[in-house]
Amino acid sequence: MNTFSDIFKKSFLEGYASIELSAKQILVVIFFAVLLGLYIYAVYRFMTRKTFYSKSFNISLVLMSVITAAIILTVQSSVVISLGMVGALSIVRFRTAVKDPMDLAFLFWAISVGIICGAGLVEIAIILSVITTIVIYILDRIPVIKAPVILVVNAGVDSDPQILEKIRDNTRSYEEKSRVLTNGVLELVYELRTNDSAALARSISSVDGVSSVSVMSHEGEVSF
Prior knowledge:
The chain is an alpha+beta fold and about 220 residues long. It folds into two domains: about 5-140, no CATH class; about 150-215, ACT domain (Alpha-Beta Plaits), CATH 3.30.70. The chain is built from eight helices and four strands; from the N terminus they run ααααααβαββαβ. Strands 2-3-1-4 form a four-stranded antiparallel β-sheet, with helices on one face. β2 (about 175-180) and β3 form a beta hairpin. α2 (about 25-45) packs antiparallel against α3 and α3 (about 55-75) runs antiparallel to α4 (about 80-90). The termini are far apart.
């Protein structure tokens, strides 16, 4: 005599064990996944202006779209396989750090396209890609607020008033960050905003008693 548990398992497996997918459906999904993956490849190549462009990462975006679409097709075809695949993928660990946040955005875009194409909603994947491209293009064209620079000056104690006067004449805003006096040598550190760092450095170096002037770009957060 079959128990309720046996009846439930049999009904579940018979109803969801397999969903027939034709070869045409599979080829159409893979085709659009490849097409949209190549589109993401082109957008990443065009809009990513890096000194060290990673072609291998860009190729991986295309492969990610195709592989994800294939996984979703497999999950749809059999609930039993999908459960096994969830267990298999759960043990995978990716240890490669994504250094640029935009790389992470493109990676998630490629995965999303693969999932949507695999689910048979190609129109949504196309709309998503178009909207994402427009948003990236518009935000990329917005002018970036110029970050402050760090000014480091080594000079005699008596040069302090002249240095401050030169800073006021050549900057829009400034803030003293550090003042160190060692054996009669004054080291000043300022965070400031200027349109011409070279002119500022030349102006300060002309002050009597100044031994060195350094202007460094600031890689921290920009405060408004």
